[in-house]
Design goal:
alpha+beta
């Protein structure tokens, strides 16, 4: 029933909240593990961001607890409702927001390469709350109903401090899910606490992940250790390098010889 309610809410408003899917203590311990990974100098190349807001790619390879989140039956059921029974997980990212972080840019997920934005979901995205998410510490905010806009980016005049941006708050262990087309952002962290989330995205089989510039593929040795339910979600190529994993867009035809 909770999953059905989540599906209905996501379908109508573009997002849903599944509270307390994991024990709060487990989630907070996972958050501590993520921060240790962010501090590892050998993984600096996996990180995009600055001193306030970071995204660390490759979590499927770096911490097995990621699998417990990605293969949790509740988000998988919601994602499969929208994307079909063969939807897949391609990447998972750790996302801490440190005190003093400003608002991140309001955006739509992975839509910039569409000539026309599809009227079906191309991604169901998630944010696991590994610490408490509050309005003060930068909880992800969503514009309700914006998944129906058909826009590849939010309108510039939308006030990110106005009432349209809803911070989605919850206790550690809760899960936010949203349609990739929903306008959303990480809000400013005005608290003295680090907010930590785990981002897991579900894609249909037809989506070409070359557009996700920083995604890291699942390593063969990682796949071998995964439980069957996680393996079923990782249907891509198991390699170590991006260029071996993702299909590049076709090259343009050569220019006509003008000589």
């Amino acid at each position: 029933t909770d999953t059905d309610n989540a599906v209905e809410h996501l379908e109508e408003f573009g997002y849903c909240l599944l509270p307390d899917l994991m024990p709060a203590a487990w989630a907070r311990a996972f958050a501590d593990g993520c921060l240790k990974i962010h501090a590892d100098p050998e993984l600096a190349d996996n990180i995009s961001g600055d001193e306030y807001y970071q995204t660390l790619f490759g979590m499927l390879n770096l911490d097995d607890r990621t699998w417990d989140c990605a293969a949790h039956p509740a988000p998988v059921a919601v994602a499969q409702h929208f994307l079909g029974p063969k939807c897949r997980v391609v990447e998972a990212c750790s996302k801490p927001t440190w005190p003093g972080a400003p608002h991140q840019a309001l955006h739509v997920d992975s839509a910039s390469n569409f000539l026309r934005v599809p009227n079906i979901p191309w991604m169901i995205n998630t944010m696991w709350m590994l610490t408490d998410f509050t309005a003060e510490n930068g909880a992800t905010a969503v514009v309700s109903g914006s998944h129906r806009s058909g826009l590849s980016q939010p309108p510039a005049q939308l006030d990110v401090d106005g009432p349209d941006l809803l911070p989605i708050c919850g206790r550690a262990g809760s899960l936010l899910m949203w349609h990739g087309g929903a306008f959303h952002m990480a809000r400013a962290n005005r608290s003295d606490q680090i907010r930590v989330g785990l981002n897991v995205a579900y894609y249909p089989r037809w989506f070409n992940n070359w557009v996700e510039n920083h995604h890291r593929p699942v390593w063969p040795e990682t796949y071998e250790r995964m439980p069957p339910q996680m393996q079923r979600l990782c249907t891509g190529r198991r390699v170590h390098a991006r260029e071996e994993a993702y299909e590049l867009p076709p090259l343009p035809p050569p220019a006509a010889d003008q000589s």
